[in-house]
Every structure is written in structure tokens, then in C-alpha cells.
């Protein structure tokens, strides 16, 4: 725990998908959910940097963070919520689009700012792909860079 499980050196997915060219930071503290979700995202063509919790995500270098197009984070984690993590990262990566994933009822986890979306668990590849592109604000677009 606390050490990022990065996969930036992994070979890119061979099948071009809607995520081609986009890099995601996936923050999920569940050791079963995180690799399964990372595999799903890679099959969609995204490059994925995995972090096993907020501390691992915050430990990323500024250079690594600058290369991230979208933050995908679990909403409820023991040390820090996904919302608080997004706030903490926004100082280092302004304008970073955020998709929070949650098993809580939708009314209890309303988004609180532009570029933040809530995706209810369970979801499939089409739903998360659509949420990522909606967070980016344009289909197939790249996140704004500072």
C-alpha cells in the first residue's frame, strides 16, 4: 500500500479503440476491482497508470501527472475520498477531468464541479468509455493541458 502500481512501461493495446492516445490515472483501493477495471480500460485502448489508493496517486511525479488525461477514482476510500483526491491533484494538474466511480446511491454522490462525473457501479466498457469522453468534454478529445 502507498506504492503506485504503474504500468506505463507495459506495451500498448494492439486493438485501436476509442481511448487511443489517452492516459488514465486509475485510483482504486480494492485489489480485485483495480486490475479488472484496468484490463477493461486497456481493451478500450487507454494507457492506464494504476494507483492502489490516494497516497500512491499523490506520490506520482509532476511529470507523470502532467501526462494524465483523466482521473478515474473510487468515490469512497478509507484514507481520502475520490473527491478530496481530485481536489488535491487539481493544484498540480489544473483542469484534470474526473470520473468518480461509486456503489453508493446517485443522490448521495452528486458531482460538485465541471469536469467531474459520477459513474454508478456496476458498469460495463461502453458506460465507462462514454463517461471518460463526457468528462473530457468532447468525443475523442484530449484533456486540456496547463
Sequence-ordered SSE layout with sheet pairings:
Layout: E1 23-27, H1 33-43, E2 47-51, H2 54-58, H3 62-66, E3 70-74, H4 82-90, E4 98-102, E5 116-120, H5 125-136
Parallel strand pairs: 1-2, 1-3, 3-4, 4-5
What does this structure look like?
The chain has 146 residues and is an alpha/beta fold. The protein has helices at 33-43, 54-58, 62-66, 82-90, 125-136; strands at 23-27, 47-51, 70-74, 98-102, 116-120. Strands 2-1-3-4-5 form a five-stranded parallel sheet, with helices on both faces. The longest helix has 12 residues, at 125-136. It is globular and about 30 Å long.
Summarize the structure.
By secondary structure, the protein is α/β, with parallel strands linked by helices.
Inertia-based shape:
globular
Mean pLDDT, all residues: 81
Largest sheet, order of strands side by side? 2-1-3-4-5
Radius of gyration: 14 Å
- Biggest pleated sheet: 5 strands, parallel
Helicity range: 25-40%
Order of helices and strands: EHEHHEHEEH
Distance between the termini: 30 Å
Strand content: 15-25%
Number of helices: 5
Low-confidence stretches: 1-16, 139-146
Number of strands: 5
Q: What structural category characterises the helix and strand content?
A: alpha/beta
Amino acid at each position: 500500500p502507498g506504492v503506485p502500481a504503474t504500468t506505463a512501461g507495459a506495451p500498448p493495446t494492439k486493438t485501436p479503440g476509442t481511448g487511443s492516445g489517452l492516459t488514465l490515472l486509475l485510483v482504486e483501493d480494492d485489489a480485485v476491482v483495480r486490475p479488472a477495471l484496468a484490463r477493461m480500460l486497456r481493451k478500450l485502448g487507454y494507457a492506464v497508470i494504476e494507483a492502489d489508493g490516494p497516497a500512491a496517486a499523490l506520490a506520482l511525479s509532476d511529470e507523470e501527472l502532467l501526462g494524465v488525461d483523466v482521473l478515474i477514482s473510487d468515490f469512497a476510500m478509507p484514507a481520502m475520498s475520490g473527491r478530496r483526491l481530485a481536489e488535491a491533484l487539481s493544484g498540480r494538474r489544473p483542469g484534470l477531468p474526473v470520473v468518480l466511480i461509486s456503489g453508493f446511491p446517485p443522490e448521495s454522490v452528486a458531482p460538485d464541479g465541471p469536469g467531474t462525473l459520477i459513474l454508478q457501479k456496476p458498469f460495463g466498457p461502453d458506460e465507462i468509455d462514454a463517461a471518460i469522453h463526457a468528462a473530457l468534454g468532447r468525443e475523442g478529445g484530449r484533456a486540456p493541458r496547463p
